[in-house]
What does this fold into?
Amino acid sequence: MNFIKTPVKGMPEQLPADMELREYVMNKIKETYKRYGFSLIDTPAIEHIENLTNKQGGENEMLIFKILKRGEKLEKADEISDLCDSGLRYDLTVPLARFYANNMNLLPTPFKALQTGNVWRADKPQKGRFRQFTQCDIDIIGDNSNLAEIELISATSEMIFQLRLGGFNVRVNDRRILKAIAATCDFPQDKHEDIFIVLDKIDKIGTEGVTNILKSMGFAEENVNKYCNFFKEGNYFESCVEFFGNKLDGVLSGNVINNLNDIIFCVRKIILDKGKVVFDPTLVRGMSYYTGPIFEIELADKSDLSLSIAGGGRYDEMIGKYNDNKIQAAASGFSIGFERIVSILKSKGFKPQTDNNSAAYLISKNLGYDRIEKVFVNANLLREKGQRVLVSPKSKNMKTQIDKLIEQGYNKIIEVSESGEHEINIQM
It folds into this structure.
C-alpha cells in the first residue's frame, strides 16, 4: 500500500511564511492580554468524554472526535456507547472549567486566564472551516460583577486595534433578555433554545425568514408575530433601555437591562473611537451554557472574511458541575477567532516586519575544512549579537535559492568559495 502525502481532510498544514504570520498574531494576542493581567495556562487536548457530552456544547457535541478505549478495556466493551472513554476537545471553555475546579485552591480570586491551543471538530471541511484549528481564549473566574465583562471587551478591543484590523462593532446582549422576550411571547420554556437557533439566522434570512420558520415549527401565529415584532426595527441600538422601554415589565428584572447598559456605556468610553459598541437584541451565541451577558466583535468591513472575529459571554453555572460540593464559581470569557484573523490579514497581503539584520552564507561544494570552520565561527559571532544567520550549501539553481531566501526576509546573501566570500547584489 502506498503512503499518502496529503494531510487528512480538514487538517491544515502551515508553510514557513504562514507560520511567521501566525506567530506574529499569536504574539500580539499574548502581549496585549498579559498587559491586562491575564496569566497563561495550558490544558490537555484530550478530555473525558463525560465532560464533552454534558449537553452544554450545543451542536459541537455532535462533532466530537471520539477516542476508543485501549487494550483490555476495549475488548470488554459490549455496547457501542462503552467503546469510547475520551475525545479531542472541541473548545477551550470545557477544559478550563475542569482545570479551575481541579486547581482552584492554587489560584487567585478572581483568576484571569489566557489559554491558546488547537481544538478539533468533525465538521465538513470547506473554505475557512477546518477540522483542526487554533483558538485563543481569555476568561475571568470568580468575579460576579460586570467588571469582568468590561475588562474582557476592553482588552479584546485593544487587541484588535493592535492588529490594525480596522474599525469594528462590539455587539452586546444578555441571555436573560432573550429568554424574557421568548417568555413574554408565550413560547414554552423547553423550546427556547430551538427558537434562539432560528433567531441566530436573522442576519441571513431576515425577520420574514425567522417568522416563516417558527410558524413551520408549529408555534402559534400570534406568538410568532409578537416575537418577531421585537426585531423588525433592526438589530443595532445605542441603548437597551431605550429599545425595550417597559415591554418586559413583569418578566425581567430591571437590573438585567441596567447592568447591560452599564457595560455598554463604560466600554464605549474606554475604547473611544477604536470601535462602536451597540446593543443587539438578536445576538444569541450558540452555546447553551451562557447565563448572562453575551458579546461578539465583528469588523465594520463587510467582506466575505470579515464576519464575527471574537465572541463570548458569562457562564456562571458550568464550573460547579465539576465540584463534588457543587459550589458555583462566577465565570465570563471571550474566544478570539484566531484562524479568521489570520485569514483576514493574509487576504490583505499583510506581512510581519522581518529582522532587517539577517544574513545567509551559501557554501560552495568541496570547500575546505578551514574555510567551513571560519564561516561557522563568524556566523555564531553574529548570532550572539542577535542577528539571524543561515548557513547552507549552495544550490545548483542558485537564482531560485536566492529568490527563496529573499522571500524569507534575508537581506544579505554571501557566496563562500575557496577564493573567499562574495556578497551577492540582491534587489529587495
